[in-house]
Amino acid sequence: MSFIHDDFLLSTQTARRLYHSFAKDEPILDYHNHLPPKDIAEDRQFRNLHEIWLEGDHYKWRAMRCNGIPEELITGDATPREKFLAWAKTVPHTLRNPLYHWTHIELKRYFGIDELLNEKTAPAIWEQTQAALARPEMSTRGILRSQKVRALCTTDDPTDDLAWHKKCADDGFEIGVYPTFRPDKALAVQQPEAWNLWCDKLAAAANTDINSFSALLTALEKRHDFFHSMGCRLSDHGLNRCYANFSTEAAASRIFDRYRSHRTKRLYPEDHELLATHIMLHVGRLNARRKWTMQLHLGPVRNNNSRLAKKVGADVGCDSIGDYPQAESLSRFLDALDTENSLPKTVLYNVNPADNYVFGTMAGNFADGTTPGKVQFGSGWWFVDQKEGMEWQINALSNLGLLSRFIGMLTDSRSFMSFPRHEYFRRTLCNLLGNDIEAGLIPEDDELTGSMVKNICYANAKAYLGLEVS
Questions:
Q1: Cys bridge to 236: 141, 254, 295, 299, which one at CB 3.0-4.6 A?
Q2: What is the pTM of this model?
Q3: ∠ at Cα 293 (209, 281), nearest 5°?
């Protein structure tokens, strides 16, 4: 039997029935990823496994560094084939890391390859996949079709002109390619020089001057309106923790003026917190008005290795789980919006599994009898998007909320090879439920459990997010 077989991860007969009958054939709504829309608009044809698999995958880069691979063979000037061979050399050392599973399920689903990837098999796999990638059906659009993707949401700065999203729509491409509003740079006053340059860029995009705090908020609102016109229905925010330093707009304006006028280059942490709180509340209100969903990705410590950050840049695999206090500030932020009836649908993503019960209980505090699962405890994210992390998140959500209302998995990926992560999640979900059924913990009722599986795989996300999908 090959390593990736029909019943991979499915340890009971009931788990196998649930997966094959109710989960396997459901389409995909990938509502958070970092795929470049340009590649979809141009229907990019990848030339080799490096381009489609290693080009921007910091998960793999991190593993290669841990295996003693020099940076030249990771993000440096080595040839694509040399970089792939370095990855192949690393793969056997990833046993019990999710990368080992992902690597082989992706080779199986995209290329029908059952061989284990290692130094010996790498040259033949390189040649075989290179030939396969040249086929028209392996272009970016062909991949989306073959993976049964109905819609996906990229991650986009408010200053983006969304020209590539427009091209996809104008082409009549049948799969929805929607932007997501990610205004993190609006908060980054702790880096005054870069923040001012970004404000200038936002001013140009919004066709306005940003010479006051109210002008900044207006510019963000104009871009929010533009994103809405382009089909956007979600915002996304990557934060250490929520900001909840409430003050007057006059105080926020004074801070804005000081940093915008370049009168200070020193960071005062309270300045950052206060300004960020105002901006996040502003975006939350805009989301509520437009019936968008707000995604809060909370908890990481980013770019820990300053030496590598200077050499290679940000987001290159040098991030960690943080241990920030989450509960009080998250509660106060959500409550501030809820108090004024401006809390949008919200998804809380937790990177630190120690906080799973904090997030699971927090989500239930702000149900309001309108939208089922209005505040979601989102899927296992980043360091916990593997089998064990998914199980922790599913179990916490089941114990503290309503698993049946869960909007399911996403790839959070920069690679077009990552869509089998939905399959990986679905197998994990069905295995948990199958084990519970065989243990007598939930009824053996396919109409009850099978319909829940189908909803978590696709229908819940479709109903919750309000995107134009079939």
A1: 295
A2: 0.96
A3: 50
